[in-house]
Amino acid sequence: MHTQDPSGRAQGPLYVRVAGTFETQIQNRSLKPGDKLPSVRELSRRLGISTATVVAAYGRLERHGAIVPRPKSGYYVAARCPRAPEPRTETRPRPPTRVAIGDIVLEIQKTARDRHMIPFGEAVITPELLPAARLNRSVRMAAAAFPQHATTYEAPAGNPRLRRQIARLAYRLSCTFAPEDVIVTNGAIEALNLAVRAVASPGDVVGVESPVCYEILQALESFGLKALEITSRPRLGPDPVELERAFRKHKIKCFLMSGSCQNPLGTILPDATKAGIVALAKQLRLPIIEDDSFGDVAFSPQRPRPLKSFDKTGGVLYCASYSHIVAPGFHLGWVHAGRFRARVEALKGITTATTPSLPQIALSEFLESGAYERHLRKLNDVLFQSTRTLGAAVAQHFPKGTRTTVPDGGFFLWVQLPRRLSGLKLYQAALEEGIAIVPGMIFSAHKHFRDCVRLSCGWRWSDQAEGAVKKLGQLAERLLHSKG
Known about the structure:
The chain has helices at residues 14-27, 40-47, 51-63, 102-112, 132-145, 160-168, 187-199, 214-222, 240-250, 271-284, 341-350, 357-368, 371-397, 423-432, 463-483; strands spanning 67-70, 74-77, 97-98, 118-119, 182-185, 205-210, 226-233, 237-238, 255-257, 288-291, 316-321, 333-336, 403-404, 412-416, 435-436, 438-439, 452-456. With 484 residues, it is an alpha/beta fold.
């Protein structure tokens, strides 16, 4: 057994190469569904590698859905699940445009938050998957240790203890931060808002990957900025040639993107691509605003590196959050603004001024205890199973010609409907059936992606979810036939 790709070249870390060998054997049917893999100890002895490497390889295969563990029995090749092809991308140039999506986004957000709906719309994780009891313990400890929290203002940059914990955990990002580099914010949206305002003024043109999180578009709209969309291709990311052309032709002030578990595509860009984008931005002196809200819920054994880890000149403004994946009620995010730090802190001081103390103190205790890492290990396994099952259900129940992403992390599935079927019409039909989804058009300033929808699955898969996907497929079929 060799740990090389078919061309004979070694690819990536050893555990990736070991996993790749098994993936090749599964693809060419040398290993068939139900076949048992060697035990961890046996494969370690056979290949002369550590058991830790074998565990990491099997973990990668399990996260990719290639193998499944059976208690007290070992690992087996998984049964083949239906999978739709990935969405097509369009790379035609698009002129800058003023963003005007506010009204429809507010309507869609309202329906997504309706607790009577089956929640394929809202970008939240169900409370049952979040560590409520442990967080409440952190709140009690914080309140007891700092009884003055309600009668004093926190510094604009945030609580020193929380900033210290964020800096301590920067090793997970392949970064080295000082606590003084971190500015705590009211969620990732405030971090992104501050970053945009630090580098651009009303009327300026800013670059955004496309599709892009609609909350970013809302921020650009509120500041009177123009958006220039740069196509983001699944697995490949933004086209550097298109980005450079946009910079030179339209004098864009910054570029907003996500390199890991991007919302809505869910893909992780290769490190070489991330490094190349940062190098190009350095050459152009173009600030990058990086949204890394979902990088911690990647399905890979190792936490993916953000663009910030390749930044040596302070040109990447890195924005992250603990809201989506651990404590929505705390609503805490943060920004490492690089060479724009002073400007971001000044803007924080004259807008929201500060962030409440008690949630910051409680979160710092939670992070310091190691509870965050334990939470992520459990959560990521559930999200992996939910997204893979959702993808298989869409492939089974939606009309022929439907395409979907295969997320590398997060809890979103980007679905491209067949024959230019309107995602907005499917959204409206789904509402009548008590199902909330998000039409793709709000992920573009130009309202592109009219044939797409985003489905969220931040919860354990259930019979109700299966039934809802089946109903969505039936609605899509009905809409297709009604067009004729």
